[in-house]
Amino acid sequence: MHIFVAGATGAVGRLLVPLLLSAGHQVTGTSRSRAGAERVRRQGASGAQVDVFDRDALHEVMTATAPDAVIHQLTDLSGADAEATNRVRREGARNLVDAATSAGVTRIVVQSMAWVYAPGKGPAGEEEPLDLDAAEPRGGMVAGIRALEEVAAEMDTAVSLRYGVLYGPGTWYEPGGAIAAALSGDPDAQFLANLEADDSVSSFVHVADAARAAVDALDWPSGPVNIVDDEPARGREWLPVLAAALDVPAPDVSSGGPDWARGASNRLARSRGWRPEHPSWRSGFARMRA
């Protein structure tokens, strides 16, 4: 197949392009910058410099490449700007789906999130509702995810990959990244300083496993799928392990936490054949230090 990867130079995209090529697919990858498009070309794919907010340019590129499927891996997380990220999910996804539909594309895979479920007991499954009544700023994030998934669902086949917290190369959780800076007290990373080693439950996924899921999802039926590892964990468990792996101070252990922080189940993804090469954040964090 010819796959159009929007966001080919992001944390997931940069690993996804080589995987698609190795699987025998033809790939066109986009970047907002000329340097990014050139980076895609050096990987052996076709690179296109285009901004997802430029509707006309996006339609032109999509029509010219005529892909069989689109994989949406666009984010705007570098500055932790929630509204900018939500704009990508709302307006960016709208533009991407419109361009794909106009070009005759019928299949899309999009990057979603696994921590948007309503409060409940135990890890959340895909059949459970989103936390649409959440207060701000969480409410805006959940609304952005709902908008993204609803727009994608307008296409004949749309798979929403609800990723857990991404860690590994190119993410906030890599050595020397934003999380390490926040735990070290860097004032420029204070937007992440509220990390709590409490009872809040998170589900993680290594960025390489996230990329492999996007390849697998090209053959999956429509709907959301949680892409998380096998071990949801409380902050009081994973944060000290992460801090040790990053060689930074760990926050004090506490109790409590929001009732929506419950983790997610990967049962559906596993039933479709996806297997994380990093089944637990424990071993995954340790490998980052190696």
TrEMBL record:
GO terms for molecular function: aldehyde dehydrogenase (NAD+) activity. Residues 3-222 form the NAD-dependent epimerase/dehydratase domain. GO terms for cellular component: cytoplasm. It comes from the Bacteria. InterPro entries: Epimerase_deHydtase, NAD(P)-bd_dom_sf, NAD(P)-dependent_oxidoreduct. This is dTDP-glucose 4,6-dehydratase. It comes from Streptomyces antimycoticus.
